[in-house]
Specification:
- The protein is of the alpha/beta class.
- It folds into three domains: about 230 residues, TIM Barrel, CATH 3.20.20; about 90 residues, PK beta-barrel domain-like (M1 Pyruvate Kinase, Domain 3), CATH 2.40.33; about 120 residues, 3-Layer(aba) Sandwich (Pyruvate Kinase, Chain: A, domain 1).
- The protein is about 35% helix and about 20% strand.
- Strand 1, helix 1 and strand 2 form a beta-alpha-beta unit.
- Bound molecules: adenosine-5'-triphosphate and pyruvic acid (PYR).
- Pyruvic acid binds next to helix 8.
- InterPro entries: Pyr_Knase, Pyrv/PenolPyrv_kinase-like_dom, Pyrv_kinase-like_dom_sf, Pyrv_Knase-like_insert_dom_sf, Pyrv_Knase_brl, Pyrv_Knase_C, Pyrv_Knase_C_sf, Pyrv_Knase_insert_dom_sf.
- GO terms for molecular function: ATP binding; kinase activity; magnesium ion binding; potassium ion binding; pyruvate kinase activity.
- It catalyses: pyruvate + ATP = phosphoenolpyruvate + ADP + H(+).
Length: about 475
């Protein structure tokens, strides 16, 4: 049975060659992510071209996800990293302010000083360094280093529990968004999404410049958790961004929060990505730790749509081995079954009820295959959310972008195909295609679910056909 859990790999210096991109696709990557916190525009545009070419050569459907920086703060560019000792004092200053002490860096948000208070905790690089804010001035803060470590350029700064008054989309985000639209990004992710309005703002800004990407909302702090239902309902996809989330909440809460989000995404019918530190040790080691194997396995068991690798593939030594590890672990756990949240999906309209009936029918047929004919991908995603158990689950769509976007959805193998004007012909083409691809044999039962039978006849329908 093909792997159901999909995989996103972040591109970076370790994986930027077209050859390597091809290797990662061959190994099982389904989506590539560009992290706009690090990627230069020319580079991101070139990576998109490389992904498109490598995918085309393989006739693979590979979407590209642009991950916007969002209202997050980072250290400035340092000439060389600071080696910090316990008790050192570090200065974080506004962009226009001169350094007053040697251990000084700018931050990319001049309003920081107004948002924080003496005594707040400041976390750098996803928890690698802990500091206490000791003094807050108009244009700088001074922090006491509580744990020794290295502080590099453009490192994340978290202030657990502090609400930053940054706009949902910064000036940089607007520029990055314009690039993403120009590159015909398939997915655009908003970072530090705080509420549904934030998701809407991103979608509207994208649509205003004619973007057609789907929106990923990254849940990474306590505020997002307070508004989680509304965010899930507004976004196309949710990302459990555990890097920041694991710092912004108590770490012992992280597994519970992850499961809550995955469960709620199922109930409300929104796809979900589990991200960050899945195989962190493989940035420098050729094999995963036991804890990482268990973590990846858990996310696949929760039947998340997609897992995501970051540093493992962007800067790691073993990108291909990381993909192979995810494939092995996910495939193995899928053989032994999943958590079954597909049963919790709230069926809110007739179309979703038809989807449920189709899945029940397909699952009951030995060797049955499930096919969705879909124009916008909505029905295909509904069906996927019910987590069908069939040996094959395929979406056929005439739309090139929808076809790529569906590659992120759990379990779906998407194919691009023009629909004929009459339904018999379309069904015949579907059967022939599956047989030609070796995915069905003549006579294999195929359950076809669709909300459009022809250009002139829209109706929710389930058809049982034999290839
Ligand atoms: N396009 C790039 N160019 C240069 N360095 C990059 C690029 N992408 C990633 N990196 C480096 O790889 C590290 C891991 O980045 P990645 O985006 O994979 O993970 P991340 O955890 O989301 O990163 P961050 O938290 O810094 O945004 C980054 O901290 C950065 O140092
Ligand atoms: C992916 C990301 O931004 C995070 O995990 O924080």
């Amino acid at each position: 049975m093909p792997r159901k859990t999909k995989l996103i790999c972040t591109l970076g210096p370790a994986t930027e060659s077209e050859e390597m991109i091809g290797t990662l696709i061959d190994a099982g990557t389904n989506v590539f992510r560009l992290n706009m916190s690090h990627a230069k525009h020319e580079w991101a545009a070139e990576m998109t071209r490389r992904v498109r070419r490598a995918a085309e050569q393989r006739k693979a459907q590979i979407p590209v996800l642009f991950d916007l920086t969002g209202p997050s703060i980072r250290t400035g560019d340092l000439e060389k990293p600071f080696e910090l000792k316990l008790g050192d004092v570090v200065e974080f200053r506004n962009s226009g302010t001169a350094p007053a002490i040697p251990l000084s860096t700018t931050v990319n948000y001049d309003g920081l000083m107004a948002d924080v208070k003496q005594g707040n905790t400041l976390v750098v690089d996803n928890g690698a360094l802990l500091m206490r804010i000791d003094s807050v001035m108009e244009d700088r803060i001074l922090c006491y280093v509580k744990t020794p470590g290295t502080m590099g350029s453009r490192r994340h700064i978290n202030l657990p529990g502090v609400r930053l008054n940054l706009p949902a989309l910064t000036e940089k985000d607007h520029k990055d968004l314009a690039l993403a639209v120009e590159c015909k990004a398939d997915y655009i992710a908003g970072s530090f999404v705080r509420d549904a309005a934030h998701v809407r703002e991103l979608r509207e800004a994208m649509e205003a410049i004619d973007g057609e990407a789907q929106i990923v909302a990254k849940v990474e702090d306590q505020e997002a958790m307070k508004n989680i239902d509304a965010i899930i309902q507004e976004a196309d996809v949710i990302m459990v961004a555990r890097g920041d989330l694991g710092v912004e909440i108590d770490f012992e809460d992280l597994p519970i929060v992850q499961r809550r989000i995955v469960k709620r995404c199922h109930e409300l019918g929104t796809r979900v990505i589990v991200a960050t530190q899945m195989l962190e040790s493989m940035i420098s080691n050729p094999t995963p730790t036991r804890a990482e194997v268990t973590d990846v396995s858990n996310a696949a068991y929760e039947e998340a749509d997609c897992l995501m690798l970051s540093g493992e593939t962007s800067v790691g030594r073993y990108p291909e081995r990381c993909v192979e590890a995810i494939v092995r672990i996910a495939t193995r756990i899928e053989r032994s079954g999943g958590l079954g949240y597909g049963h919790n999906v709230l069926l809110r309209d007739e179309r979703q009820k038809v989807a449920r009936a189709a899945v029940t029918l397909a699952d009951s047929l030995p060797e049955g295959r499930l096919v969705v004919l879909t124009r916008r991908g909505v029905l295909a995603n509904h069906v996927a959310m019910l987590r069908p158990k069939t040996a094959g689950f395929y979406a056929f769509t005439p739309n090139e972008r929808v076809c790529r976007q569906l590659a992120l959805t759990r379990g779906i193998t998407p194919f691009r195909m023009a629909f004929a004007t009459n339904i018999e012909e379309t069904i015949k083409r579907v059967g022939e295609h599956l047989v030609a691809e070796g995915l069905a044999r003549p006579g294999t039962p195929i359950v076809i679910v669709s909300d459009i039978l022809s250009d002139h006849f829209a109706a929710n329908s389930i058809l049982l056909h034999h290839a």
